[in-house]
Design a protein that fits this description.
Number of strands: 21
Radius of gyration: 25 Å
Distance between the termini: 68 Å
Largest sheet: 6 strands, mixed
Strand content: 15-25%
Number of helices: 11
Amino acid sequence: MKNKVNKYVIFMVATFFVGSLFPFAYSGVNSGLEEMKIMVDVVDKIKVNYVEEKENKELLENALTGMVRGLDEFSDFVTKKDMKPMQEETRGEFGGVGMRLDASKKDRLIVTTPMPNTPAYKAGIEPNDEILKIDNKLVKDMTSEEAVAALRGVVGTDVKVLIERIGKGNKKEQKTFTLKRTKIIPQVVYSRMLEDNIGYVYVQDFSGHTTQDFQNALQDLTKKGMQALILDLRFNPGGLLDSAVDMVKMFVGENKLIVYTKGRNPDFFKEYKSVEKAKYADLPIILLVNEMSASGSEIVAGALQDHKRAFLIGARTFGKGSVQQIMNLEGGAGLRLTVARYYTPLGRMIHKNFKAKNPDETGGILPDMVIPVDLATARKATLYTTNYVYSPSKKTSLPDESLKAKDIAL
């Protein structure tokens, strides 16, 4: 029996693919079925000959994953297991214990800093603590993704963490903490005053809390006498479209176009405009971008540049100007599908042609002043801005000076 193909999985896969070809099948049903023979043949050979027995569900999910990922760089089939973490990340909040972690060293998980007023901070976890075990499971036996997932969980539940730190006399000591997970809202907006009454705001991404945090930062800087603004969107990968649009509305008002989307389906043509007079319509702005500024960052950069509301400095942005829609599927899985592309107010398509001979010369937003900075140096400078070391034993929080680098663009 095991040597024969389970006809159910072939039927499911073939039905799915033939169904997707239905518009074409009307003019030639047999043609569509003929094209599906290779899929059935592959499934047949896997079920009979592959070195390990495979579940039908796994084969179907692999088939769906391959089909969707073949469309472009950003479309994806999302399994039921991965749907919830993706939704939590987009909202910008999750159940966790409040630690920023460094997983760059193989088999090691280091605490960069506990976030203030979180369970990790209140329990006394310190920067540079190494996490050895999570709920009695060795970190060295986990991937970094598995370790982070183990720390997260349902709000109100406990997680046990064994750490190792350098104590008195440079001796290593271990300590176990039992932490109760709570809702964690990561800090994504950082601000400070520079010389000459210039305000500086770094925005890490466009999550569900970015708009309010950005408004608060501008209000605080205004009270301190801000007369001009440096808005830093370097290494900002984007996030929620509405959050990026709301940022532009603070600087561009009176019914001006901010961005529009256009796809093959007319339903995905949509214009996003400002409505009221912008609160900071007259504030001079310098906008910093680089090769890792993407999506929402490019929407902001394109709109402010087209409306001549900001002078852009840095490098051509990433060129991720496509719209993905999350579609729920039966059984709890999801489909992240590219349905449209972004265009600036003057009609420039943001999306890069990743298959072009010289993709770096297409798409993205080209700054008014190009200042090439290698990404390693730029990342170090950005970390100096964002990586505040929070320690329960200190009353103040200061940037880690070891991360400081000369920030040419700034």
